[in-house]
Write a structure and sequence with these properties.
single chain, Rossmann fold, 2 domains, 7-stranded mixed beta sheet, 13 strands
């Protein structure tokens, strides 16, 4: 081979190296992870990655995950969803409430979306039905936001002496109206009044607990909300400061020092979300991929918190608890 031809071939091949490398990189699917909370307080990231791994995908090896967090500012979700869509991403995962899923669906009608929400996705128009979603979106639903009446009933059993309940609710949550109806049914059944206060930022949470104390509230229901879950440590500390037994939806609230929780397992819900994303990456269509529904719900009690509040919990309530933290 003549030297000139050899050099020409060498130059041509080296010029192609970056293109081949780029092509290989572009074959790695990008997953957009959209969440309404704060990265450091979102404990479900490892569970989501675990679900991906169960489906044969590992972040940094088989897929690349781009994370966006609204930090409790639900109004930021549409812009963050649009940013991920522009990447573009192969699949968009929406966690941290129905508002996240709504923002994702509004951002794209073509990119597959997988949600993990505590609401009825049919009621909010996300899917046509649970078995046949019918569009570009499917996911996991654990109906946490429809259990406020159940939680209020458990709180009354935990604190039978309570005469006035406090209800902490986030008005920015798309479920707020449904939650208020659920609570109204609960207070009507219990024949006890409730003081309902709204909070969507830290200062309003502080003010709400001060007001609960001033208005002789005896126990507090913290409505299901991703923002409240992200502030679970703060809420548990305020409940202790004002000597107010409190119940929320997630075990993590009890682990942070809250008295009790009732809901599905949040970590497992995100694991299932990761599995659903993996199925989409393997070629299954969201339109035909049934929404996974949580079937197990857990009632968790913190005995140390009960003791610090001076509560003697009824034996009947303890007997039905799925887990007791001592």
């Amino acid at each position: 081979m003549r030297r000139r031809d050899f050099v020409k071939g060498l130059v041509g091949s080296t010029a192609a190296w970056p293109l081949r490398a780029y092509a290989q990189q572009s074959l790695t699917p990008v997953i957009g992870f959209l969440h309404s909370g704060i990265a450091e307080q979102t404990t479900q990231l490892d569970s989501f990655r675990m679900g991906l791994k169960e489906s044969g995908f590992e972040d940094g090896r088989d897929v690349s995950v781009q994370y966006r967090f609204a930090e409790g500012r639900y109004d930021r979700l549409p812009a963050l969803a649009a940013e991920l869509v522009r990447q573009p991403v192969a699949v968009l995962f929406a966690g941290g409430g129905v508002h996240t899923a709504i923002a994702a669906k509004s951002a794209t009608a073509t990119i597959p979306i997988v949600f993990s929400i505590g609401s009825d996705p049919v009621q909010f128009g996300l899917v046509a039905s649970l078995n046949n979603p019918g569009g570009n979106i499917t996911g996991v639903s654990f109906f946490a936001a429809t259990l406020e009446e159940k939680r209020l009933g458990l709180l009354s059993e935990l604190v039978p002496s309570a005469r006035v309940f406090g209800i902490l609710i986030n008005p920015a949550n798309d479920n707020a109206e449904n939650q208020l109806k659920d609570v109204a049914q609960g207070t009507l059944a219990l024949r006890r009044p409730a003081v309902t206060l709204k909070a969507s930022n830290d200062s309003e949470i502080d003010a709400a607990f001060d007001a609960f104390s001033q208005q002789n509230v005896n126990a507090v229901l913290v409505a299901s909300d991703p923002f409240f879950n992200g502030r679970r440590q703060k809420i548990a500390e305020l409940a202790a400061r004002y000597n107010l037994p409190s119940i929320s939806e997630w075990r993590e609230f009890v682990q942070a020092g809250g008295l009790a929780s009732y809901g599905s397992n949040l970590s497992d819900n995100y694991r299932l979300g990761g599995v659903q994303v993996g199925r989409v990456l393997k070629g299954e269509k969201p339109a035909n991929l049934p929404v996974v529904q949580a079937t197990k719900f857990e009632f968790v009690i913190n005995l140390k918190t009960a003791k610090s509040l001076g509560l003697t919990l009824p034996s009947g309530v303890l007997s039905i608890a799925d887990a007791v933290i001592e």
